Write the structure tokens for this entry.
Amino acid sequence: MILVTGAGGKTGQAVLDALAGQDEPVRAWVRRPQQAQGLTCADWIAGDMRDAPLWEAACKGVRALYHICPNLHTEEVAICQLALDAASRAGVEYFVYHSVLHPQTSTMPHHWRKLQCEEAIFASGLPFTILQPCAYMQNVLAYWPSITGQGIYPVPYALDARLSLVDLQDVAAAAARVVTEAGHAGAIYELAGPQPLSQTEIAGLLAAALGKPVAAQRVEWDDWQADARQRGMGDEAIGTLLAMFRYYDRHGLVGNPNVLGWLLGRAPTTFTEFVRRQ
């Protein structure tokens, strides 16, 4: 059996969908029972990942664990250790961790926490694979009403910042391959999209695919923060994301697509292909 944690989020759901055609049964861990509705697996467990006894139940009978921690969780390192301890006690044979591209960047707290998790995985003695995806192309969909209705692609960092956006469906397909076939233990795979695009270039590709003008527009951080608070985002998450925006301003987030292409057995999805699919 394969256990997929964080299965209620968009990443977890994509991984479950990619595993749906496999012969091995899958168990999903969701935060709330209602999130289990519509999942592509019948076996699920619900609860907080900080609940140590729940890890024991979740890992029972599990061969491989695909661990996705809730996004921006301040206790990710402690949760990862709970997962590793429970997996070791349950005799889990293989631990796959959903990390992030360039976790070495200490100025982005959520990246740095994932690096600490990776170190804990090394120390656990469990056979492991670590996947390090870039930001998803799907993140652009959060601005879809503005893009399609007003022709504006709003971003809270420099318009010339380059990101190697990756299609979540490609990431999920690679995850499904890694967790179900032999030969990946001990690997750390960077999963980056094929084009390091500036935000202006993304707007241009959106315009070409949609057949209408689209312009990238910088959102000032004070305006972004006010909107985030209105939507109920907490101080910790706001601070973490602002740190990410500052990093993107200076450095972008650029990776190489070769490893992802090898895992997929084809070229990774381009941004234009992604938009056309929408």
